[in-house]
Specification:
Layout: H1 3-14, E1 46-48, E2 51-53, E3 59-64, E4 74-78, E5 87-88, E6 94-105, E7 111-115, E8 120-127, E9 135-142, E10 148-152, E11 156-164, E12 172-178, E13 184-190, E14 196-204, E15 215-220, E16 231-232, E17 239-245, H2 246-249, E18 254-260, E19 270-274, E20 284-285, E21 293-300, E22 312-318, E23 324-326, E24 330-331, E25 337-342, E26 351-356, E27 366-370, E28 377-378, E29 382-383, E30 388-395, E31 407-414, E32 426-427, E33 437-442, E34 445-452, E35 460-466, E36 475-477, E37 481-482, E38 485-494, E39 511-520, E40 523-533, E41 539-546
Parallel strand pairs: 5-38, 6-13, 14-20, 21-28, 21-29, 30-36, 30-37
Antiparallel strand pairs: 1-2, 3-4, 3-39, 6-7, 6-10, 8-9, 8-11, 11-12, 14-17, 15-16, 15-18, 18-19, 21-25, 22-23, 22-24, 22-26, 26-27, 30-33, 31-32, 31-34, 34-35, 38-41, 39-40
């Protein structure tokens, strides 16, 4: 289904009739998939990251009125942009819920659920239903009011996990949809004592040898959702007890994950497949990885001679016994040297040494397999290759000359096989030059490049996959592209008057973001077109692309 049609269908399903929804128009003609400038598009269309398209179509606006006061994100499609685009918000979005445990006999001989009144922890994680890639997360600990609770959230789809503070009860998870107009509702029913099963077991290192570290265990389903609370393992005996609901205890198998409490402990973590049938018949063996060893080495810049100072170095991977080890990172000194404490690896699956150069370096993120023996080890010097240089140029609208002074932001959106996803995005310290040219040194990965011009021109974005460079190919040249003309958009943001939060119904200092929803490489993506903040009177203004 085309994105525009999907948005319209979803808008109708959600019953969104607030400002900006307008009348639903006929489907536009098929869009051109490849373009470098608006001139390559049909009349009235603009060259976007996914090809030519209607500049007023597939637009979703997100407004966050006042997050600290519990007025969180509301998003809705805008089917017809106007120069004066007022945004009428709904009342604060809330996820309301109930939690009960057991039933009681009523006066008429029937039964009624018993409200649960003890403290609970709520975690709601999810994303926007309309804007791919925009995450949502809210959590709190509260005491239900006669079994009822309310959690401020943004509109979206969530997995809500309720964990009683009482460790004798299991967590429960439910899916919930929250729309701006009506919020969302979710109900939990905690199991009674007769519907709770205790899973008991013992965790050992190997044989009769205990784990010399604080460990905790938890039962998960096949999607890694919690079926039990985390429970400490008795350090002296290795014994543990986990509480499951009867339905989960009736599963054929579940996952039981054992992890060290402290990241600095030289102990692996391991996931077991077990039958949740009361008491585990045999101890779970973490596997003896052997004694910890010291690992030393040196990191060099791309020239193979200059020491790399300030690089973050860590070791991780499979160790003897089948567990997985993830060491604590250290920084290289002025001579590029590092010293790690690690568990030894195994011959068939070497450990991975991960080197993250400092931002000032032109060398790239480098993972390298290394052999760590059961004795103190000095690894060979590692020379980090040069980051791939991505170059390109930007032209002013309608090809009227080079676009100088354009800010360039690189945002990682995915990882390549064999490489971790690059660290957080960054803005280039240099804008485009007098020729409209730019150059970025990037680690291997998938990126969204955002170009932010001034002079009332809209931002534009492009996706790029940056491979690992080689001695013969260290420069990646992007095709030149042309900025779009801008159209001014302004309006007032209002919401239902609230004596405590907005007595005059004005959404002052609200964050406003306009997105275009697209499909890139067969998967939905969202492109940020503009963002701004409303003033004290609730008015905002921004610039969007146009022909």
């Amino acid at each position: 289904m085309p994105v525009s049609r999907a948005l319209r269908t979803l808008a109708l399903a959600l019953g969104l009739t607030g400002a900006g929804c307008g009348f639903l128009e006929e489907e536009p003609p098929p869009e051109q998939l490849v373009c470098r400038s608006d001139a390559e598009c049909a009349a009235g269309q603009v060259c976007f990251v996914d090809g030519c398209g209607n500049p007023g179509g597939d637009i979703v606006v997100e407004v966050q009125p006042h997050p600290k006061a519990g007025l969180l994100a509301q998003d809705f499609p805008v089917d017809r942009l106007r120069a004066e685009q007022n945004l009428e918000l709904f009342s604060p979005v809330r996820l309301t819920g109930t939690v009960t445990r057991g039933t009681a006999t009523t006066t008429d001989g029937g039964t009624a659920p018993i409200p649960y009144r003890a403290p609970i922890h709520l975690l709601a994680t999810g994303d926007s239903r309309l804007i791919p890639g925009v995450a949502r997360r809210q959590e709190t600990t509260l005491t239900p009011d006669d079994g009822a609770w309310v959690l401020p959230v943004g509109s979206g789809r969530y997995t809500v996990t309720l964990t009683p503070v009482d460790p004798a009860l299991p967590p429960l998870s439910r899916d919930a949809f929250v729309d701006p107009s009506s919020g969302g509702v979710v109900a939990f029913e905690l199991p009674t004592a007769s519907r709770v099963v205790t899973l008991a077991g013992t965790l050992v290192l190997q044989g009769t040898k205990r784990v010399d570290a604080d460990m905790e265990v938890q039962v998960l389903d096949e999607f890694l959702r919690p079926l039990s609370q985390r429970a400490r393992v008795a350090r002296g005996t290795g014994a543990f007890q986990l509480v499951l609901g009867a339905e989960d205890a009736a599963r054929d198998t579940v996952l039981l994950r054992a992890t060290p409490v402290n990241a600095g402990d030289l102990v692996p973590w391991k996931t077991f497949v077990v039958e949740p049938s009361g008491t585990l018949p045999a101890p779970l063996e973490l596997g003896d990885p052997g004694a910890a060893v010291k690992v030393e080495g040196r990191v060099l810049e791309m020239d193979g001679q200059t020491p790399m100072a300030g690089a973050r170095v860590s070791l991780q991977g499979r160790v003897a016994g089948g567990g997985t080890f993830k060491g604590v990172p250290v920084l290289t000194d002025a001579q590029g040297r590092y010293q790690l404490t690690s568990l030894p690896g195994v011959a068939e699956t070497p450990l991975t040494l991960v080197i993250v150069p400092p931002p000032s370096s032109r060398s790239r993120l480098t993972p390298q397999q290394v052999a760590v023996a059961a004795v103190d080890t000095v690894l060979p010097d590692v020379t980090c290759p040069e980051r791939m240089t991505v170059v390109g140029s930007v032209k002013n609208p309608e090809g009227s000359g080079p676009a100088s002074g354009v800010r360039v932001v690189a945002e990682p959106v995915g990882a390549l096989d064999g490489y971790p996803q690059p660290p957080l995005g960054f803005e280039s310290p240099l804008t485009t030059d007098s020729n409209g040219s730019f150059a970025l040194a990037l680690d291997p990965g998938e990126y969204r490049l955002d170009f932010l011009p001034g002079e009332n021109l809209p931002r534009v974005s492009r996706f790029v996959t940056v491979p690992a460079g080689t001695a013969d190919a260290e420069v990646m040249t992007l095709a030149a592209f042309t900025l779009s003309r801008g159209r001014s958009l302004s309006g007032r943001i209002t919401l239902p008057p609230d004596p405590a939060l907005a007595p005059d119904g004005i959404a002052a200092n609200a964050s406003v973001r306009f997105f275009r929803v697209v499909t890139v490489g067969g998967r939905p993506e969202s492109i940020l077109l503009a963002q701004t903040v409303s003033d004290s009177t609730g008015r905002y203004s921004t610039v969007l692309p146009t022909r």
